[in-house]
Amino acid sequence: MTTKILALTDALGNLVRFRLMPGHRFDTVGVPPLLDGIAFGGLIADKAFDSDAIVADLDARGAKVVISQHPSRAKPLPLDRDLYKWRHLIENFFCKLKEFKRIAMRACKTDRSFSAMIYLAAAVINSQ
Fold this sequence. Notes:
The protein is 39% helix and 18% strand. With 128 residues, it is α+β, with helices and mostly antiparallel strands. Strand 3, helix 2 and strand 4 form a beta-alpha-beta unit. The relative contact order is 0.16. It comes from Aquamicrobium lusatiense.
């Protein structure tokens, strides 16, 4: 069984919200529910999140788009490389999350217990 964790963190790398998805789904499918109801000034993401729908949603919100473009994009968007360097905070969060064996090995049998483990691990990470 494979599961993807889509996570949204704040500017300090603390978990704001996450969503579990099947491992074989595209990442862009889970982004709209992840961003729904949250106000923010910008989104830093990697090329897996480069879609016209996401960019249009961010433009409608007035948020800064800092997404590395997929090489096949016909019209590349400008990328603030200095701001993009801060993407390491989400990578650091996932590294810390995977230190918890039950999360790294997906030991929980249900999505509900797996989600509870992620919340617990995020609380421990934030308390350090």
